[in-house]
Amino acid sequence: CCVNILILCLTIHTKLMRLCHTTSCFKSSGQVIVTFDGDELYHADFKKEEIVWESRVPTSFHFVHAYQYAVYLCLCKLPELIVHSRNDVIEQIENTLICFINHFFPPVIKTKWTKNGIEVETEDSFQAFILNPDGTFHLFSTLSFIAKDGDIYGCTVEHEALTEPKTEFFEVHSNQTDNHSFVYCGICLTVGFLGIAVGTFFAVKGNKYQTS
Fold this sequence. Notes:
InterPro entries: Ig-like_dom, Ig-like_dom_sf, Ig-like_fold, Ig/MHC_CS, Ig_C1-set, MHC/Immunoglobulin, MHC_I/II-like_Ag-recog, MHC_II_a/b_N
CATH class of the largest domain: Mainly Beta
CATH architecture of the largest domain: Sandwich
Signal peptide: 1-22
Family: Belongs to the MHC class II family.
Keywords: Adaptive immunity, Disulfide bond, Glycoprotein, Immunity, Immunoglobulin domain, Membrane, MHC II, Signal, Transmembrane, Transmembrane helix
Shape: elongated
Subcellular location: Membrane
Mean pLDDT: 75
Oligomer: single chain
Order of helices and strands: EEEEEHEEEEEEEEH
CATH topology of the largest domain: Immunoglobulin-like
Strand content: 35-45%
Strand order of the largest sheet: 1-2-3-4-5
Distance between the termini: 98 Å
Helix content: 10-25%
């Protein structure tokens, strides 16, 4: 289990009441406590592997899979990484790399960027952890760069669920070469169309000359 304490609260605005999950997971033991407006509904005891319901909570309100849900909350979740550019990559044009780090728990993570194997500084002064519907978290890390064909950037994360740092790479492939190809093809097509037009013009003139 992860060494972590997490409190998630949902405010019911109509009556200004709060439903809270307090999760504390440790390597040898842990608890998940659910409270409603400050009063405990139940807690999960991982030593005894059971749910302990507050006596005032009617049996009809007991959640059948409450213990399985508590176990799920205490599992470390491995982060998933995706790196992409904000805009199309063009040689010598400033762009931004985005590292999307998703589905990790607990919300404690360290990120860094490298360029061709050398660590580079980022402008990420604050990382906002965003809660997913399944109880895991995601965040975005960004890096500004000037595109140069062949450069390799890496987004590396360190997380408690990982036995070693995890890295996702992004290799710069500039579209500039492709743009030159498009220009060359455009010129060839233009010359071809002009040739057809000139040939058609002289063919028409030749027919008129023969007729006359």
